[in-house]
Amino acid sequence: MNKSIIIIGASHAGTSLAFALRKEGWQANIILIEKDPNLPYHRPPLSKKFLTSDMDIDQHLLMARESYDKHEIDLRLGLEVTGVDKSHKAITLSNGIVLSYDKLVLATGATPFIPPIKGIKGIQDVFYLRTAKDAMDIRSACRAIDAPSILIIGGGYIGLECAASLKQLDVSVTILERENRLLSRVTAPEMSDFFLKLHTEKGVEINLKKNVTSIERAHNKVAVLCDDGAQYDADLIIVGVGVSPNVALAEQADLKTHNGICVDEKTQTSDPDIYAIGDCTEHYNKHYDTTIRLESVQNAVDQAKVAAKAICKKETGYDAVPWFWSDQYYVKLQMVGLSSGY
Ligand code: FAD
């Protein structure tokens, strides 16, 4: 019988899994399906060098095109999986094709969260950053205006990295952060102070405790209004206030979900033939004695290695300590572990 594994999502998690499966000895079909039309690429550069350079996304590929052929990975780009039928072990693609699987892996990642701000959905110059296309759209919008003013909603990693990158250009950058410090969800106050000072020295205007309530067009600018009455006008807005895990397919298949698709230490979901890895998952982490959902390349790649072993019936279990990095100007932040209750 021609066994098949289907992986939905070909980014850090899904692509790593496809290659790890071959390394672990999986000899049957591997079908890797991705809705983005580009060959799978590294996401971290999108808010860093890529944002202001002339680079093509092909300069940041996870794997060269030939590698997929060499490892007999059937990569199908520009196709969205629209349905999972776990009782028939089949998925449906956006082009209507139905494919059967023996094992299915959800590596569907996450999508930028759209905050409940009045007017946010109807305005043209509001950008999010997750894909190569998003980064190229921000680049083009910056280049279309002479010395544009950019307003970033959110003082987390994405907002700060965008600010640091865009400051290399002739632009003014303002950040509005709702909390009383930058990076409040992920670092200690000392680190928040460090980055506040760094960005201020570089000419970024940072406004803390600014809760944005509405966005509207005002002449040829976009006006951002806060609940304390403050108003900021800018040419373009970047929203970086977190992401939501892509769980729609899992929910449709009636898999257990919470803050992500629930997986065990072998990355198996509540269905024994369906696994899930990367940003879309929530797992019990023994180092913190709680369930967590991580958004990092480390977690995506490490969970992929565990899934490959588990699917190939080898001894495994996920117990990695989380680590993360961020590049802003000349500073590289590297952190191990999670900052909680500091
Ligand atoms: P994703 O990268 O989100 O990939 C999921 C893929 O699934 C997507 O390509 C999506 O198109 C596809 N997909 C979803 N649903 C379907 C469907 N139904 N059919 C077909 N395809 C589907 N992490 C770090 O550790 N360090 C950093 O410095 C860092 N910087 C970052 C900068 C930016 C701008 C961004 C956006 C992220 C950054 N991250 C960083 C986070 C890191 O990129 C993510 O943790 C990582 O990409 C997670 O990989 P993933 O494969 O789980 O999910």
Features:
five-stranded parallel β-sheet; alpha/beta; binds flavin-adenine dinucleotide; single chain; 342 residues
Summarize the entry for a quick read.
The protein has 342 residues and is an alpha/beta fold. It has helices at residues 12-23, 49-52, 65-70, 132-144, 157-166, 189-201, 248-252, 297-311; strands at residues 4-8, 29-34, 74-77, 81-85, 90-93, 98-100, 103-106, 110-112, 126-127, 149-153, 172-176, 205-207, 212-218, 221-226, 231-234, 236-239, 243-245, 257-258, 260-263, 274-276, 281-285, 290-292, 323-328, 331-336. Helix content is 23%, strand content 30%.
Detailed description of the structure:
This protein is α/β, with parallel strands linked by helices. The protein has 8 helices and 24 strands. The chain has helices spanning 12-23, 49-52, 65-70, 132-144, 157-166, 189-201, 248-252, 297-311, and strands spanning 4-8, 29-34, 74-77, 81-85, 90-93, 98-100, 103-106, 110-112, 126-127, 149-153, 172-176, 205-207, 212-218, 221-226, 231-234, 236-239, 243-245, 257-258, 260-263, 274-276, 281-285, 290-292, 323-328, 331-336. The chain has a 5-stranded parallel β-sheet with strand order 3-2-1-7-20, covered by helices on one side. A hairpin with a 2-residue loop joins strand 23 and strand 24 (331-336). Helix 1 (12-23) runs parallel beside helix 8. The longest helix is centred in the C-terminal third of the chain and has 15 residues, at 297-311. The protein is globular. The relative contact order is 0.16. It binds flavin-adenine dinucleotide. Flavin-adenine dinucleotide is lined by residues 8-9, 11-14, 33-36, 43-44, 46-47, 80-81, 107-110, 129-130, 158, 246, 249, 278-279, 295-298, 300, 324-326.
